[in-house]
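Pair request: fold both.
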Amino acid sequence: MRTLLQIFQDTKETLCRYDYYIHTQKRVLHLTNSEIKIPHLMGMQYLGKPGQFTGDYGAYAIKKQRITMDSVEKLVRKYYKTEEKQRRMLEMIHRKLDNLGELGDMFSSYSRLYLYEKEQNQESEFQSDYLLVHENGKKILHLGLVKSKSGKDLYHCNSFMTTYQNDRDRDSFFCNLTHRYEITRIVRENKATKRAEVIYQSMDAEQREQAGIEKMFAAAGIHADERLIKSVLRLNKKFGRYHTLDLLNDSKALLEKCTDKREKALVSDFLALWEEGRYGTDEY
């Protein structure tokens, strides 16, 4: 079993090292987080006095291991009197702790995005503006996104929960939500280096992008085969941007963007195809 500290650090690596840009046809949600959001996602708000183990102090207490898995059990036993309430609280908290490691999968594979219409769910304590829903086998992961006060289309994670297919309330968080947005792609950007990468793209979005690349080459009088088009698609995903002909022709700049062997291999494969077809500016 992972410790609270390990869960905290792993979640921090996923949520705080990167910003995420969730693209739909209507808008782009910019998701950014700091470590003070993590204790709430872990369910620490249900322990002790209100707010005792959330925010700054919650993060500090977990990092200094002043609260551990043993503490969770003891605090639930202390603050919840009946055995049934204790059982339900422990189950809810452990569902969060056991599944936070799958946040990366939520961002890098198919998920659904709902506008959370609070007026239709007035009895719910859920306070998010959007709900990201991801199904993995029998598990359904729910990630709440709340609008930041500091910027337009800037959001933070403010809740996380897991239900299962056989739960009576498995879809209770989104069954009344009528406004659903198809996610076309998700871009992950490293906060420190500002390096971006497309980690999810829908099939329709990829087909539209491929058609755009074909039109770009056709407009330049270039007959590009499928291998070259697929290679450009891979470049676009890896570096999180659309490569125009000017960018494709600048082999030096492409190689300078590479930070590891995999990126160099990707660029080298493209340049080999580019040279093989003699598509450079010297030829056109």
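--- second member of the pair ---
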Amino acid sequence: MELNVNWIAPVEHRDYNRMPASIWIRCLQLFPYLEKLGVRSSFNDPASDAPITVIVRTQDEQAYLTAQRLKEAGKRIVFDLCVNYFDECRVPGLGEPVSAGHVEDCLRMVSLADAVACASDNIARRAGRHHQRVEYLPDSIDLNHFRLVKDEKDFSRRRLRAVWCGQITKAGDLEPVLPLIKRKKIALTVISNSKPDLRIQSRLFRTRKFPYCYRPWRYETFPEDILQGEICLTYRETDTTYNLGHSFFKIGVFMAQGVPAIASPVPSYRELMDDRQCGRICRTVEEWEQALDEILADRDMLRQWSSRSREIMNDYSTEKIAGRYLRLFKELI
């Protein structure tokens, strides 16, 4: 039996380079894998008569009215959340990523949903206070696209190379660990939507005291760019509900190609890394320094982390996660 699902997202194109990453991660890249499982996906199709609609990364008035109309017509609604929009939050450098208006809009959408799908277990736990049917459907890695493999010989390089990837507005997240990288003579590559503005971003960037290599983020070149480092660095403060809700994609996409991570204790990062010998979770700057010293002194540790990282991410391939979506869709109808 073929199952039809309509997906609604706040873009009218399919160019991964011009949309929020969460839309292609939690929507478009799933389509070919769902099709193999007998699920035909339409995208922003107002004429769709699909029995299930998944609403991704949108919760404004138009999204609410659309969900209300579909609900009245007897359709099933899945509301997909990649951010914790249940708690107001202010974050230094980002202002107010979750306002009272965001919370109100989110709760209205949840009230209409037949199921709430969440990008992290942390968000799912929060959503569970407002809805009986909450599914943790992790972000996934399309291993047909991210199919390159880190060359183990790179881990013997005289100068270790680190990689950071993210929106340029969040480049300041690296501020606490940049002095460590500089002092230990570790090279840094920044992959982002634009080059760090030396007037706005990190103090070290701003004063031109920190050399780095910049690579513009593009979906087509991202797999190759990932391999430009031996370690992925992802520092986040964990004192806000916004940061605690992040999915693991930021480190998982590196791990899938054998580039291990040193990261802050975001719950989803710990899901991949706690007690699994594939990297380091660091709670303090002192722990970050210790982790960097360890890998500088023992490159075999990096090789072991690399192999283990790839093994772990096989369980989060888009092919496997698509199966979890299929189970949810079948249960809803």
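Observation on the second member. The chain has a mean pLDDT of 94.
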